[in-house]
Amino acid sequence: MTPDESLLTWVPRLRRYARALAGNRDDADDLVQDTLERAWARAALWRGVTDMRGWLFSIMHNLHVDGVRRPRLATQAIDDDTPELATAPTQGERLAVLDLQAALDQLPVEQKEIVLLVALEDMAYADIAKTLGIPIGTVMSRLSRGRERLRALMDGRDQPVRLTVVK
Amino acid sequence: MNPITEAELHAFVDGQLTPERHREIEASLAQRPDEAQRVQSYRDQKRELRALFDPVLDEALPQRVLRAARPRAAWYSQRWIAGLLIALISGAAGWGLHGAWPSASPDKTLAVAGFAQRAAVAHAVYSAEQRRPVEVDAAHEDQLVTWLSKRMGAPMKPAHLQALGYALEGGRLLPGGQGPVAQFMYRDAAGRRLTLYVSNEIGELSSSASAARGNQSETAFRFAREGRLNVFYWVDGRFGYAISAEADRTALTEVSSEVYRQLAKGVTVD
Question: How many beta-carbon contacts under 8 Å exist across A and B?
Answer without folding.
Answer: 117
